[in-house]
């Protein structure tokens, strides 16, 4: 049996071939780190510092809930939507602590998929990775749908025309094909084809624009603030608050995007934990502030599920179309950055899974000039673009939330398992009060999953069934750990070491 706690050496070890053993086999941390950056025909380039990593997390997170999902969450919770943001943020915080510890300990591209592979075995890792495919891939589509709404607001305020409903909304929302959603995904694909450094530079500019836009909204929206809009703070009860919180958790999925850049970070063990925690604090503060101003400026009963809710509030408060149009312009840029960074995370998750043999090799093929997995990027972009063009936003957001919560729950478990199996491993960040805080994070994830609709659970069950079929038909036999004997690889200089 492969000794998970022993340091790697240049030797060959025998892996048990029984079905149970193969499903539970774990990939040593040292081997994960040693293989970091290596793909088919090339390697990823380490070019990202703390600033770029933080901007990736903020870029993937900030804007999704405020610019897109707020209009759907307010009717569920009323003015207490601010509390829903806090609850969702706290749930994310407990999981963020676990992500920070594991990102510093296992700084690789696979995020929670790789953490699960090192701690709970291949089958659980596959389930986690399949959830991440749902989390990242579907969220790209969901955000792209909202981008189309703000693009129409911008066109309406500047040239007085909008894209016809047939070409700007998916089937079920009064349209035939959401062309803007497909366009923004393809634009993000073009940036990603140039490599991580170039994509990070474009993302940083877009993040600054979106923060400026939200600060501008607060400065103008507070002028229309009416305390009477908060007279019945929780009209739909705690069940409404938790239901809105489960939907709004979709707004926090991006904070873990930095962990997918583990193999392109200059100093991953130091910078990844900092980037994850810093981005979550900034995003949560802005979410709560903007939600409070939005509900104060517009009675919650008048929120009509519009994805362009903030632009409408700006127009109502000022009585002028200019401010709403300006916000729509900023939102078009801001939401594009979410698409860019979340799509980046999706490609890196599949890169790690492909390198392990669980999905086809094409996903780990690296272009020698750009250092980017170009074929991976094209395939994922086309899939997400078509999904965005064909499925309504609400269904996408809830499906993303349940996949995210499940993956986060597994990360909290992984922290506890790794603490027990490798207690002396060097950790650049440690979750305080472990295992208590990881346990709280795990329970909060389960609680919020329970707040989602039955339809969402049915979709999730179907997705997991498809994933298990794919694993047993393809990944189970093609896994790089499936051979009767597997050479143990030496650790890289940056590999975690026992103290």
Structure, described:
It comes from Streptomyces naganishii JCM 4654. It holds the Pfam family AA_permease_2. By secondary structure, this protein is mainly alpha-helical. It has a single domain, classed as Amino acid/polyamine transporter I, CATH 1.20.1740.10. The strands form two sheets. The chain has a two-stranded antiparallel sheet with strand order 1-4. The chain has a two-stranded antiparallel sheet with strand order 2-3. Strand 2 and strand 3 form a beta hairpin. The longest helix has 37 residues. The two termini are 24 Å apart.
User: CATH homologous superfamily name?
Assistant: Amino acid/polyamine transporter I
How confident overall, as mean pLDDT? 80
Identify the CATH architecture: Up-down Bundle
Tell me what portion of residues adopts beta-strand conformation: under 5%
N-C termini distance: 24 Å
How would you sum up the global shape?
globular
* Tally of separate helices: 18
Q: Tell me the CATH topology.
A: Amino acid/polyamine transporter I
Total strands: 4
* Order of secondary-structure elements: EHHEEHHHHHHHHHHHHHHHHE
Count of discrete domains: 1
- Structural class, judged by helices and strands? mainly alpha
CATH class category name: Mainly Alpha
Order of strands across the main sheet: 1-4
Low-confidence stretches: 1-17, 485-499
Radius of gyration: 22 Å
The main sheet comes to: 2 strands, antiparallel
Helix content: 55-70%
